[in-house]
């Protein structure tokens, strides 16, 4: 019995995804067809079609899983301890100084190797 419900759900999900693809296609073709119209009207039409397509996609199993993922990501991002402004400035300064030191070392090595090769080659 459960497999029949899963099969029916997946069949409806496929149909819903076809509707989403059709809405996106209508948006693309409509944007090309109405290219002479105002950009504002075309953007509003595309936004409306996008919202409808997103709502239809959200009704599928994958859409529900994606919504759950976004909700869990939001919870996790609230747990992040963001650095204070002085920590951020100090860390950025350390990275910039380190990059400059490494760049100078590489430039020096490149110049030395170039000088040695030009001495050997003549």
From TrEMBL:
Q: Does the keyword GTP-binding apply?
A: no
Report the subcellular localization: Membrane
Taken from the record, one Pfam family name reads SecE
> Where is this chain primarily localised?
membrane
- Which top-level group of life is the source organism from? Bacteria
GO-annotated biological processes: intracellular protein transmembrane transport; protein secretion; protein targeting; protein transport by the Sec complex
Q: Entry's PANTHER family?
A: PROTEIN TRANSLOCASE SUBUNIT SECE (PTHR33910:SF1)
Function description: Essential subunit of the Sec protein translocation channel SecYEG. Clamps together the 2 halves of SecY. May contact the channel plug during translocation.
Q: How does it assemble?
A: Component of the Sec protein translocase complex. Heterotrimer consisting of SecY, SecE and SecG subunits. The heterotrimers can form oligomers, although 1 heterotrimer is thought to be able to translocate proteins. Interacts with the ribosome. Interacts with SecDF, and other proteins may be involved. Interacts with SecA.
Q: Which family does it belong to?
A: Belongs to the SecE/SEC61-gamma family.
What name appears for this protein in its UniProt entry?
Protein translocase subunit SecE
Q: Please give the organism.
A: Tamilnaduibacter salinus
